[in-house]
Amino acid sequence: QVQLVESGGGLVRAGGALRLSCAASGRTFSSHVIGWFRHAPAKELELLAAISRSGGSIYYADSMQGRFTISRDNAKNTVSLQMNSLKPEDTAVYYCAARRTAIAVVTATSRSPSEYDYWGQGTQVTVSS
Q1: Do residues 108 and 39 touch, judged by C-beta distance below 8 A?
Q2: Rg (CA), the chain
Q3: What is the pairing mode between strands 10-13 and 123-128?
Q4: Per residue in 19-33, pLDDT tens?
Q5: Does the pLDDT of residue 61 top 80, yes or no?
Q6: ∠ Cα 107 80 103 (to 5°)
Q7: Which residues have C-beta within 8 Å of that of residue 114, sequence separation ≥ 6?
Q8: Which of 61, 88, 91, 126 qualifies as a FRET site for 12, CA 20 to 30 Å off?
């Protein structure tokens, strides 16, 4: 079992940056793909980025390319999401999630929230105009 805790959210002005962190417990962390999702009011849960077990395969949502960067450090059981050029529409609760897999790359299946086994409690990001 993997437990996840997000941190790093807060209030930022439009055009600013935040770095979110996902800290995981469990010795099987490196057997999981990690995704970052967000849930804004009145919107669907949205996948932002996902990273494979070793970090060698990464997926970004098209709208996030060039603004968000995902990375992981398996030695420390952490995954980060660097968010730049933030916009008011980025305001949401941000979640990290883990999906156990034997596949070494991010697959299309890992783009679906329903495929993830473990979720953090979320961290609020608010971007003011």
Answers
A1: no
A2: 14
A3: parallel
A4: 999 999 988 999 999
A5: yes
A6: 25
A7: none
A8: 61
Instruction: Output the six-digit token pair for 115.
Output: 């495929």
Candidates 94, 116, 115; CA nearest to 43 is 94
Sign, CA dihedral 40-83-59-37, equals negative
Place of tokens 């057997």: 31
Do 11 and 124 form a contact (C-beta atoms < 8 A)?
no
Side chain identity, residue 62: D
Q: Nearest Cα to 32, choosing from 101, 105, 120?
A: 101
Identify the CA nearest to 32 among candidates 59, 48, 51.
Answer: 51
**How many residues comprise the chain?**
129
